[in-house]
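User: I'm putting together notes for a lab meeting next week and I want to include a structural view of one of the chains we've been expressing. I don't have a solved structure, so I'd like a prediction I can at least talk through. The sequence is below, exactly as it appears in our construct file.
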Amino acid sequence: MAEIINMPRLSDTMEEGTVATWFKKVGDTVKEGDILAEIETDKATMEFEAFHEGELLHIGIEEGQTAPVDALLAIIGQKGEDISALLGGGAVAEATSETAPVEVVEASSAPAELPAGVEIITMPRLSDTMEEGTVASWLKKVGDTVTEGDILAEIETDKATMEFEAFYGGTLLHIGIQEGESAKVDSLLAIIGDKDADVEQALAFANASNAPAVEVKEEAPKAAPAPTPATPAPAPVAAAVAAPTPVQNTSGRVIASPLAKRLAEERGIQLAQVQGSGDGGRIIKRDIEHFKGGGMAVSAAPQGIESVVELANNQMRKTIAKRLGASKFTAPHYYLGVEFDMENAMAFRQQYNSMPDTKISFNDIVVKATAKALKAHPEVNSRWFDDKIVQHQHVHMGVAVAVEDGLVVPVVKFADELSLPQIGAQVRDYAGRAREKKLTPAEMDGSTFTISNLGMFGIETFTSIINQPNSAILSVGAIVEKPVVKNGQIVVGHTMKMTLACDHRSVDGATGAQFLQTLKGFIENPITMLV
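Assistant: Thanks for the context. Below is the predicted structure for the 531-residue chain, given as structure tokens.
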């Protein structure tokens, strides 16, 4: 079925975009992740990826042309598919009505225009796959002065936690999404404007113009309402945000936001000691910051009382669940295990590291050997489609990295062409920045194969779930000292186990076994990788 692609909103202030360049033409095959076009926004010129696969059937905005957000940009579908009904306007209008509900709001239910001197800030789309975001922390509070370029908040996406800066100056009049709360892209995030602006009118306008904003507005006020002062409407909004009424949690459980839990651990504070001021007695960031207790040296929690901490699923965890669940239940996995003799690899590494300013790890050797083996077996370096199998001639190696909130897979591009020190430098850089949530989406896209190494944790053998769209993933265990048989004699040796998980749709068992044989040759005789 044909998919309508609309002009995307690539920044929170973007109202229209200009197509700078098309990288595909009508009739071209489009794969998910292909760059369709470069689109010029009010901030920058950005690449726009395809989220659907098929044939580019129609281009709605030619190069150099400008169109508003949600205008028909392109149509992707099956070759020869009839799209006359879509071009007739019916389906396009239906598709855009979901993102532009202002058309169906009665005139009497909303002000005709936004109050003067006020700007509505919505939840931005900070990554190509982002569907919702979580406010990790606010760096401004209601009533604060905001200057263009100030960091308003830290927003957690499915890829990383990113700083979100203000594009307007004024006073922060309203916060629509509290710390620890999640909301869809384009939901009401905040309102900035003149200090004396009519906040209630601005909220009414935002609610009528954006469906997600209505949801946030209805769900947010759960604290007891503040007394109505003899001042304009903005006052109670600011009071409600700045000083929510504490609610006692009487359930016997300790309920805290992920951010509050992390701050408590850093400061040595036991959560059971803290009075939560969030909904239902939930402990939030400001409760930890204002806590005056003595940290872990004092324990106010009664002995013998059961307690739990509820951790809301962050965007990274949700994405891991969604993607790996889809991989496990759509790709028929099978597993091939092999044990490698690591004596030569250990001697090779020791000799290599004896050179000045050189240090490589066993993981670097595995990455290099795997990349070389994939060049010899492109069937394993592949991707499954319903009507074809795509075999990659390049090797972009995904390297799984454990981070505090889950797992990310930065990609070492053209790994087969890199030297061992170059691979090591890239992997160390990516791992460090991954743990600081500083990786860019581009550094985590495009893998053709993935390696997951748990050897440093003492794990000898394990199986992994394929990181789609890859067809296989290699699980690497620890090097173990054990008795082995060599030339009919039992001697002390060092071995390492690896397990290859394959998608049986694109990689047959014999193909996977042949790949492992080639890999075994490189691992057990690493000098051959350099020839």
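A couple of points you could mention at the meeting. The chain has a mean pLDDT of 82. The chain has three domains: 3-99, 107-242, 316-530.

User: Perfect, that's what I needed.
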